[in-house]
TrEMBL record:
Keyword Transport: no
Ranges annotated as spanning the membrane: 74-94, 99-119, 125-146, 189-211
Signal peptide as annotated in the record: 1-31
Region (Disordered): 155-180
GO molecular function: heme binding; molybdopterin cofactor binding; sulfite oxidase activity
Gene3D superfamilies per the UniProt record, alphabetical: 2.60.40.650, Oxidoreductase, molybdopterin-binding domain
Keywords: Membrane, Signal, Transmembrane, Transmembrane helix
Location of the Oxidoreductase molybdopterin-binding domain: 264-411
Basic and acidic residues composition bias: residue spans: 155-174
Name of the protein this chain belongs to: Molybdopterin-dependent oxidoreductase
Length: 538
């Protein structure tokens, strides 16, 4: 009989797979909704994704950034959804034949979610709740759907996990009486599938709506009035912009500022309970509140942040006006002992960075920042407090959502990325890039405006040169320097002749060192090499 109905059988298997996928969607949506109430970071996708990110080898992380750029997190979430859907489809097919097997897959998935959630930094025991509640609801959904698959036995006929061994065929659905399809056929399954989808959709939308409504942290951020700095940033000198149309603006608007971090869901930090602890190799342990920061003498300065994962010509750099407390004032109160040489700053989400103590105590104005371009820090950029240290790549200095400063020694402690193959120290390397025109652009022959940005934080850029094809290096015009800690724009008027041409740029820093042409990869301490583009002149 089975052999004569291959299509029906395939169809039922597909429906079983669909049952599994719907049950998984219900599990995730319900878990997400519960997580909004219990702990947002405890949502299973977020927690499992977080574990995955922390376990990702540096090469894969670099590949993800290179391939997906700042969409690497979206790529991860989509991949996880695909994998879960596949596993869930298998669970549905299994559950049709042996309920215990299918149910087992759901239980294991929920357990993985719960385990991931409870082991995330700063998680409490309640972090298991979203996955467990979601898993329970998912099990019910799977049970209901599988029991309504065409050919499934009526509930009255028994709910056994193991089919009757005396029967010649152990396959429960196909063994069902010919009349079984009448009561529990496709229509009944479709009805149950619609109800399940509705439950999943309601939970999903409910989670979103509730999430928005309870975003008290964003409300607190909006309500915050930043104090005026005791030492204001110098007004930007006229002429910091090169004037080349299409070049990156000198000040990066907060909304356009590159974002790099390991947080799948942005940490929601409550300002009233935020504390920063300064401890370790210090004469005196210190703890400050956010109010302490608001009441302190704050400074403002322009600093260009750069990511160590930025490739030659890349855009993982941004320039902003930061408002904050000099870290050296806090350290002066704590009094580091003579053997200390590093400060390990740690975020509420477990990320950490190792910064040389000297970089936090010298006159470069490393700060605990609370303001970015005259606004409270955006949540993505570390609200309420982050570190900003001129001259060092972000991974060794710019801890967002910072809650802890441990004064220690490089010999005794390692930071998040140092543990994953990156260098323990990360001074920013001199870089320059061409922003206008774009590579592979077509431009008209004659005078063409070339423009871009160069940076060498803590040293300053003193020259930029452009090379056309294999010609001599020619000096570009430098825009005014705002400070040695900010990037510097440049422009160059090129007398373009028809044909295909390569343009290359290099910068020289204030120590006289010319940016090297040697290409090295971003791992372990930042890329080098010169940026080239190819354009067609018509
Ligand atoms: N908590 C936390 N802070 C972090 C990171 C992180 O993953 N988590 N990444 C660092 C890195 S690698 C960089 S380049 C900067 C980027 O800061 P931005 O996202 O504000 O541009 O943040 C740093 N601070
Ligand atoms: Mo970075």
């Amino acid at each position: 009989m089975r052999a004569r109905r291959p299509h029906a059988k395939v169809g039922t298997t597909l429906l079983a797979a669909l049952a599994g996928v719907l049950a998984a969607a219900t599990t995730l949506a319900v878990a997400q909704l519960v997580a909004v109430v219990v702990a947002p970071q405890a949502a299973p996708l977020i927690a499992v994704g977080g574990v995955f990110i922390d376990a990702t080898p540096p090469a894969l992380k670099d590949f993800a950034i290179a391939t997906f750029g700042t969409n690497d997190k979206l790529a991860l979430l989509v991949s996880m959804a695909v994998v879960i859907a596949l596993v869930a489809a298998v669970a549905g097919v299994l559950a049709r034949r042996r309920w215990a097997l299918g149910a087992g897959v759901v239980v294991v998935l929920a357990a993985v979610g719960a385990a991931a959630a409870v082991t995330r930094p700063s998680a409490s025991a309640v972090a298991v709740v979203p996955s467990l509640v979601g898993g329970a609801v998912g099990l019910v959904a799977l049970r209901v759907l599988v029991s309504r698959l065409p050919g499934a036995r009526r509930a009255a006929e028994g709910d056994r996990d193991v089919p009757d061994r005396t029967a010649p065929d152990r396959d429960v659905p196909d063994r069902a009486a010919p009349g079984a399809d009448r009561g529990l056929g496709r229509r009944s399954f479709i009805a149950a599938a619609l109800v399940t989808s509705a439950v999943a959709a309601l939970a999903g939308v409910g989670g979103q709506v509730l999430g928005q409504a309870t975003r008290t942290v964003e409300a607190a951020r909006r309500a915050l009035r930043l104090p005026t700095a005791s030492r204001r940033a110098a007004a930007l000198p006229a002429g910091v912009e090169s004037g080349v149309v299409g070049a990156a603006p000198f000040v990066t608007p907060n909304g356009d500022f590159y974002r790099i971090d390991t947080a799948l869901a942005v940490p929601q930090v409550d300002v009233d309970s935020w504390r920063l602890r300064v401890h370790g190799l210090v004469e005196e342990e210190i703890e400050i509140s956010f109010q302490d920061l608001l009441d302190a003498d704050l400074i403002e300065s322009w600093v260009t942040l750069t990511c160590v994962s930025n490739v030659v010509g890349g855009d993982l750099a941004g320039n902003a006006k930061w408002l904050g407390l000099p870290v050296r004032e806090l350290l002066a109160r704590a009094r580091p002992t003579a053997d200390a040489d590093m400060v390990l700053s740690t975020s509420i989400d477990g990320f950490s960075a190792s910064t040389p103590l000297a970089a936090l105590t010298d006159d470069r104005d490393a700060m605990l920042a609370i303001g970015m371009n005259d606004e409270p820090l955006p949540a993505d950029h570390g609200f309420p407090v982050r570190m900003v240290v001129p001259g060092l790549y972000g991974y060794v200095s710019a801890t967002k959502w910072v809650v802890d400063l441990e004064v220690t020694r490089f010999a005794d402690a390692r930071a998040y990325w140092t543990d994953r193959g990156w260098s323990e120290k990360g001074p920013i390397k001199t870089a320059s890039r061409i922003e206008v025109p774009r590579s592979l652009d077509r431009v008209p022959a004659g005078q063409v405006a070339i423009g871009g940005t160069a940076w060498a934080q803590q040293r300053g850029v003193t020259a930029v040169e452009v090379q056309v094809d294999d010609g001599d290096w020619a000096a570009a015009t430098l825009a005014t320097e705002a400070s040695i800690d900010t990037w510097r724009q440049w422009s160059f008027v090129w007398d373009a002749t028809p044909g295909s041409h390569q343009l290359t740029v290099r910068a020289t820093d204030a120590t006289g060192e010319v940016q090297t042409a040697d290409r090295v990869d971003t791992v372990p301490d930042g890329a080098t090499g010169q940026h080239s583009i190819v354009v067609t002149v018509e």
